[in-house]
Design goal:
The complex is a heterodimer. In chain A, about 40% of the residues lie in helices and about 20% in strands. By secondary structure, chain A is α/β, with parallel strands linked by helices. Chain A has a seven-stranded parallel beta sheet, with helices on both faces. Chain A has a single domain, classed as Rossmann fold. Helices cover about 35% and strands about 25% of the residues of chain B. In chain B, strands 14-15-16-13-17-12-18-19-20 form a nine-stranded mixed beta sheet, with helices on both faces. Chain B has a five-stranded antiparallel beta sheet with strand order 1-2-3-5-4, covered by helices on one side. In chain B, a hairpin with a 5-residue loop joins β2 and β3. In chain B, α3 packs antiparallel against α7 and α5 packs antiparallel against α6. The N and C termini of chain B lie far apart (about 55 Å). Classes of the chains: A alpha/beta, B alpha/beta. At the A-B interface, α1 and α2 of A face α10 of B.
Chain lengths: ~190, ~425
């Protein structure tokens, strides 16, 4: 890898699987792309910190990754100074808190659930994006769950493509199908 | 004519006719208005269909409210039937349980009993098929009486029509069909479902279907009452007496995003599919039921209950408590204290066992382990993690399979729920 790249992942709803996808992407970056990879936590939910503790006890590929838990969005970040090829930025689900750093990422992924009882949060989020003019065409939208009709309705309503995020059972042990999907995100 | 009704959407189009979804401008009620062009259709047949169904009052038959005509069109104002046809359900569902087939069959029998016992003349429906059967929540309705007719003293007063694959053999040969023609079609409809469920359809049910579909009408069941009695014997034979043992199931999660609502909705649909009348209640003030009510084909009943496919839910705890029969699924979200205080007959703790969620899962388990009928359910993690958690807690843990749609029936999910609830009976 000649150039540093940062990939931000943001969730529209809490618990939608941002950290899960971040770990999967980190694994893919380490194993398949053999890229020096760091994972940065902006969400403040300490999940990456717990992952770091697990890394110390495991011999898995995560042993080669660097973790930057509990990073602040306001003050200058140590991870920016570090020399990794790939940064996976776990922006959690608080868009208002982590939007600045998220929007600075080279690639931006927004993850959401289209279950009927989660649609209100999707509508609120998309309204905010449209009203503030923050929409950026470099963003990739991914959806968990929801029926095909839900995705079609989303695309019809917001005129933005949205792709299905397949179920990755174990982000530490990627299957071939998982790797094929993750390749498209890079 | 349409001045009294505001057109909302087009429900369907055919040769020479369009069906609109409308709302009465003053009453604010929804109606289906069928507009039939006089140049394409036989007005007498339309009027005879309307006259025939106008006199029928049954929960399984949509009401006709009004009929008018002008120079070019005839307008028939009918009850708006919200739901999905059995044809759509057959396409969408991976498999269908025997209990569901029998429940549909029993309701269809009630409608046929009503039609065949109509006074002064029995009515032969003649076009029974999945596309004409609509499921609205737990209610089955029969639509399109276009070729139905009376069996009068002078014999029949209608032409022989039908749909290939569902019409009785005597309808093809120009014979004089009797009510056994409807019995044949009924068997053909159940057969469509039974084919999706070959491995777990009992011999009893297969025999009933075979008898309905015998070539010789005299060898079929003599009436819809006989078919109903036979189906009831299947129900009695296979029924699990859950109602006597389980009244409420609480579902609570260890952390946000664990999938509590998804699992509660899936369990609600599973129980309703099996004829165990079940109501979903959100106990944490969420708007789940409200969100479901906005889905197309969802139906909102007068008491505020919402039904969609097999889902039945309410926002009102009082409405759920008023129900004397059936079960209740209570969605507590992540309110562990609430779940402990209002102890259900079963409490399901949903955990995700990702590395970064294990601590939260253990803490949640510590809060609820005092409950006597606690069931641990792992969602969205790998099985190895689930096994480790089981070893840590000394309890059996179930693994919820990937479930893209909680309203649909998937074999793995159904089998899991059956195992989970059987153990706790």
């Amino acid at each position: 890898m000649d150039k540093k790249e940062s990939i931000g992942i943001l969730g529209v709803q809490s618990g939608v699987g941002v950290t899960h996808l971040s770990v999967a992407m980190m694994e893919y970056s380490l194993r398949y792309r053999r890229s020096a990879t760091a994972i940065v936590e902006l969400s403040g939910n300490h999940e990456v910190e717990l992952l770091q503790d697990h890394r110390k006890r495991s011999l898995h590929h995560t042993g080669r990754a660097q973790f930057f838990p509990n990073q602040s969005c306001e003050s200058p970040a140590e991870w920016v100074q570090a020399s990794y090829d790939t940064y996976i930025v776990d922006a959690g689900s608080d868009y208002y808190r982590s939007r600045q750093e998220f929007m600075r990422c080279d690639k931006k992924i927004i993850l959401m659930s289209l279950s009927p009882w989660k649609k209100r949060e999707v509508d609120d989020f998309m309204s905010y994006i449209y009203e503030t003019g923050k929409w950026n065409k470099s963003v990739t939208l991914l959806a968990h769950l929801g029926k095909k009709e839900d995705k079609k309705e989303f695309q019809r309503r917001y005129k933005i493509p949205i792709f299905c995020c397949p179920y990755i059972e174990d982000p530490f042990h990627l299957k071939e199908a998982d790797a094929r999907f993750l390749r498209t995100l890079f | 004519m349409l001045g009294r009704y505001e057109v909302i959407d087009i429900l369907g189009e055919g040769a020479g006719s369009i069906v609109y979804l409308t709302r009465h401008t003053k009453l604010k009620t929804y109606r289906a208005v069928k507009c039939i062009s006089k140049t394409h259709s036989m007005p007498t047949s339309i009027f005879s269909e309307a006259n025939l169904t106008d006199s029928l009052r049954h929960p399984g038959i949509p009401m006709i409210y009004d009929m008018e005509e002008d120079d070019q069109r005839i307008y028939v104002v009918e009850e708006y039937v919200q739901g999905e046809s059995l044809e759509q359900i057959l396409l969408q569902q991976e498999s269908v349980s025997q209990e569901y087939i029998v429940q549909i069959g029993l309701q269809l029998c009630d409608i046929l009993i009503f039609l065949h016992n109509h006074k002064p003349y029995p009515i032969l429906y003649q076009d029974l098929k999945p596309a004409h059967i609509i499921v609205c929540g737990n209610q089955v309705k029969l639509i399109d009486f276009g070729i139905a007719g009376y069996i009068t003293n002078q014999g029949k007063n209608f032409q022989n029509y039908g749909t290939r694959g569902f019409a009785a053999p005597e309808q093809y040969h120009g014979g004089c069909p009797e009510i056994q023609a409807d019995i044949y079609a009924f068997g053909a409809v159940l057969d469509c479902f039974a084919k999706k469920n070959r491995h777990s359809c009992s011999k009893q049910l297969r025999d009933i279907i075979a008898k309905c579909m015998r070539q010789n009408p005299k060898r079929r069941y003599g009436s819809a009452e006989e078919v109903k009695a036979a189906l009831n014997r299947v129900v009695d034979h296979g029924r699990k007496r859950w109602n006597n043992l389980l009244h409420s199931i609480a579902v609570v999660g260890a952390s946000p995003g664990a999938g509590v609502t998804h699992i509660a909705v899936a369990l609600n649909c599973y129980l309703n599919r099996r004829g165990q009348s079940c109501m979903y209640v959100a106990c944490t003030g969420g708007d789940v039921t409200d969100c479901v009510s906005r889905m197309s084909a969802a139906k909102v009943e007068q008491n505020g209950c919402v039904s969609y496919q097999h889902f039945l839910g309410t926002c009102e705890w009082d409405t759920a408590m008023e129900r004397r029969e059936g079960m209740c699924i209570r969605d507590y979200g992540t309110d562990l204290q609430g779940a402990v205080m209002e102890e259900g007959d079963i409490t399901i703790l949903v955990v995700t066992l990702s590395v970064w969620r294990q601590e939260a899962a253990l803490k949640a388990y510590e809060q609820v382990k005092c409950l006597p009928n606690l069931v641990l359910l792992c969602n969205g993690s790998d099985r190895q993690q689930a096994k480790k958690f089981a070893a840590l807690t000394g309890r059996r843990i179930y693994y919820f399979p990937y479930d893209p749609n909680p309203f649909r029936e998937y074999q793995e999910k159904e089998a899991l729920f059956t195992r989970m609830l059987k153990r706790k009976e």
